[in-house]
Amino acid sequence: MTSLVLLLLMAAAGDSVHYVPAKDVSAAMKQNPPSPMINTEHYGIMAFHRTSAGQAEVHDKDTDVFYVIDGKGTFVTGGTVVGGKVTAPGETRGTSRSISFQKVT
């Protein structure tokens, strides 16, 4: 089984440091759907556990940072979203992606 932490960051200069205890990160990884652990004017941080591939995603303003903290995973980036639909402002998700890709394992 793979444990994954995803941090959604939109940091701005001058933001303060936030500490999130391990127990809060563990609790956040069990929430479905995930909700922000930290949500400020400039950025949000979420953590969640994935056991299978997610949807194809495009974020207009967010950056995904993945940490595989247990097990193994394959991260695929690039390509074109197939069947893309706007699911929230600045967020597009699709059924799959068409890729001539770079694969990091």
Strand order of the largest sheet: 4-9-8
Number of strands: 11
Number of helices: 1
Strand content: 35-45%
User: What's the gyration radius in Å?
Assistant: 15 Å
Describe the structure.
The structure is a single chain. The protein has 105 residues and is mostly beta strands. It has one domain (3-104). It has one helix and eleven strands, in the order βαββββββββββ. The chain has one helix at 22-28, and strands at residues 3-9, 38-39, 44-45, 56-59, 63-70, 75-77, 80-82, 85-88, 91-94, 96-98, 102-104. A three-stranded antiparallel beta sheet has the order 4-9-8, with no helix packed on it. A hairpin with a 2-residue loop joins β8 (85-88) and β9. The longest helix has 7 residues, at 22-28. It is globular, with a radius of gyration of 15 Å. It starts with a strand and ends with a strand.
Key structural traits:
105 residues, mainly beta, three-stranded antiparallel beta sheet, two-stranded antiparallel ribbon, 1 helix
